[in-house]
C-alpha cells in the first residue's frame, strides 16, 4: 500500500513517460494532464491496487492505457450526441396540432 511519499516517488519516476504515452493517445495536452491526474488520484484512493504488483511500471502503463481508452470512448460518445443534436430540427417554434397547446398559445398572446 503506497503512502503519500511512495505515491510521490511513483509519480516522480513514471509521470514523464506516462505523459508521453497518454499524449500519443489523446493528442491533447489538457486531456493528457487530466488522465494522468486521474491515474494517481485513483491510486491514492485505492492504494490496494498496487498490492502484489510485481511490475509497477507495466501496471501504471496499463492503467494509463485503460484510462486513455475510456477518455476516447467518452469523447466519441459526447461528439456523437453533439452531432446528433445539431442535425435534429429545433421544435421550439414548430406549430402544433394539439388543440390544448393552441388554446394556451392563443391565451398567452392576450387575444381573447
Helical/strand content category: mainly alpha
Overall pLDDT = 84
Give helix and strand order, one letter per element, not per position.
HHHH
CATH architecture verdict: Orthogonal Bundle
- The CATH class name reads Mainly Alpha
Rough outline: elongated
Helical segment tally? 4
- N-C termini distance: 75 Å
Helix content: over 70%
Pick out the low-confidence regions. none
Number of domains: 1
Let me know the largest β-sheet: none
* Assigned CATH superfamily: RNA polymerase sigma factor, region 2, helix turn helix motif
CATH topology: Rna Polymerase Sigma Factor, Chain: A
Structural notes for this entry:
With 112 residues, this protein is mostly helical. It has one domain: Rna Polymerase Sigma Factor, Chain: A (Orthogonal Bundle). The termini are far apart.
Summary keywords:
Rna Polymerase Sigma Factor, Chain: A, about 110 residues, mainly alpha, single chain
Amino acid at each position: 500500500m503506497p503512502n503519500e511519499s511512495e505515491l510521490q516517488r511513483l509519480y516522480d519516476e513514471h509521470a514523464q513517460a506516462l505523459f508521453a504515452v497518454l499524449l500519443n493517445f489523446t493528442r491533447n495536452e489538457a486531456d493528457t494532464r487530466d488522465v494522468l491526474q486521474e491515474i494517481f488520484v485513483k491510486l491514492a484512493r485505492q492504494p490496494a491496487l498496487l498490492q502484489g504488483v510485481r511490475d509497477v511500471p507495466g501496471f501504471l502503463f496499463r492503467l494509463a492505457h485503460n484510462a486513455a481508452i475510456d477518455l476516447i470512448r467518452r469523447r466519441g460518445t459526447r461528439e456523437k450526441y453533439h452531432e446528433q443534436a445539431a442535425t435534429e430540427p429545433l421544435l421550439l417554434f414548430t406549430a402544433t396540432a394539439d388543440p390544448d397547446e393552441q388554446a394556451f398559445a392563443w391565451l398567452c398572446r392576450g387575444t381573447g
